[in-house]
Structures are given as structure tokens and as C-alpha cells.
Amino acid sequence: MSKILIAGSIAYDHLMTFDGEFKDSILTEKDLTHLSVSFLAKTEDLYFGGCSPNISYSLALLGDSPSIIGVAGADFVKYKNWLDGNGVNTNFVDIDEQNVTAAAYILTDKNQGQITIFYPGAINNTNIGFDLDKFDFSGYEYGIVSPELPQRMYYWAQYFKKTKIPYIFDPGQAIPALTKEQLADIAGSCDGMIFNEYEATLIENKIGLNVIDLSKKMRFIIKTLGAKGCELYTDGKIIEIHAIPDMKEVDSTGCGDAFRSGFIHGITNGATMEKACQMGNTSASFVVGMKGTQNHHYALPEFNARLNKNFS
Description:
Blueprint: E1 3-7, E2 11-18, E3 41-49, H1 51-61, E4 65-73, H2 77-85, E5 93-96, E6 102-108, E7 114-119, E8 142-145, H3 150-162, E9 167-169, H4 180-187, E10 192-196, H5 197-207, H6 211-215, E11 220-224, E12 230-234, E13 237-241, H7 255-267, H8 273-288, H9 300-310
Parallel strand pairs: 1-4, 1-8, 2-6, 4-5, 8-9, 9-10, 10-11
Antiparallel strand pairs: 2-3, 6-7, 11-12, 12-13
Helix pairs in contact: 1-7, 7-8
């Protein structure tokens, strides 16, 4: 069992489905300056979400001891009870009593294309969440900084650097808001980075280094590729790790967070980088077949059986 700090957003997810394709409603050859489109959602469900709880939930399933660092609103009580009941420590969550917890409104079409509107709520309160020295993090061996308010993410990265807690930097949608200097600083202090193909291009353009050269500044970089799996950049090599094949895709929301859970579980429990990526892909496979980011359940024997079946 590993004690792990998971910093990032805490949110309620409003997941909706669109029984069609977005591309049929958006005419890209037209002037999009005054774009006005409307989609009729077929279903709508409310789930627990946010990067840090999503990652923490799957880590707890894998037998680790995750703790969330983040900011929530006055409506967090029900969510807190859910997390506490599922093995996730919420003692390091700051509460903004004047605001609600962040909310993500995600509409998914039949090809798994997504349109997301994110309301930050309590996350936007820049007066809280920046004083980690008030907490006791002794005994924690690893961390991850996942998407949240960019300035808070940078602070968390600096804190992990100061306290010598190795961490993964998962920049996500914060890339445009972080400066080149901040990204370079983080690249020089983090254990590794995880991002998808689109984010990889954003980082390359921002920092002026390709992924291969950037990976030389840290222990690893992982580029996630959705249904194709991921690429691992480490020790000057690129290793391709396939996804679990033939999975029924119900909803891809949360798969990336689950991948991070499996990977962190692997590297904090003695696995090689490649094996940890295989664990990440296995973890993600339990989410893609479910609606919602914290509705999957498994015991370790079931996880290991799927891992061993698909990776020799």
C-alpha cells in the first residue's frame, strides 16, 4: 500500500449524450465567428468527478492510500462521504463556504466526441488552497499535480519540489495559461509528465522542445493515445503499449484519470515503467465500459486477471 497525494480539481459531472454526430451540426467551411448551435441531449446524469477524486478512487480500488489536495464548495458534504467511504482521504481538501463545488457539463455524441463546459465554482477562489504547510504530509511517497487552477497547479508543483516528494505533472487544459518559464521549471523538477496527443503539440509549441528532447529532462513522459493505448518515453527510447482490445465503449470520460491511477500504482509498487503503463491501460479499461468516472468496481484478482490476460 502506497501513500499518494493527488492534487487537482474536484467537481460534479453532468454527463449527457447526443444521439447524433457533432460534425453534422458544425459547418467548418462557414465563418464560425457567430457560431450558434444547439444539441438535444438524449440523457442526463449527475456523477462525482474531478481529476483528483477520479484518480484517487481507482487508486483506492488498487489497494493504495490516496489523499486529495484541492478546493471544494459548500455542497461537498455528500461527495466527501462518498470518498471517505471508498478509501479516499479528504482531510486536505479546503472548503469555500461561499461557493459551490466546480461542475463539468459534458455532452458526448455517438462517436465519443465531446463538448465540455466547465464551471470552476470554488476552484476560482484564489484565497484558499495555497497553504500546504499547514498539513502534515510525512510518510507520503509520491504525488501527482493534475488539472486545476493553473496558478494553484504551479504552487503545488513548487511545494512537491520543496518537500522532495516525487510527482507527476499532468498539465491538461492549463497548458495555455502556464508560461514557458513555468513549464520549463516544472519539467526540470517533476518525475515525469502525462498528456495526450493534442496536449503534446501544445507543450512542444510552448516550450520549444519536442517530446523526445523534453523527456530527457525527467524520468519519463507518457503520451496517451485513447483507444490505441499510449507511448512511453524513457531512457531515450519510445515504447508503444497497446490498449486492452475489444472493450465495449460506453463512455470514455474518466479513462485518462484511471490510466494515471494504474500507472502510479505500478511505479509505487515496484513495477517497471512499461508494466506500469500496462497497468494504466488495464485500469482505464474498467472505466470505458461504464457511464460515470467512479462507477466501476473490481477487486485486485479481477484486475490482475485482465492485466495478465492482455500483457505477457
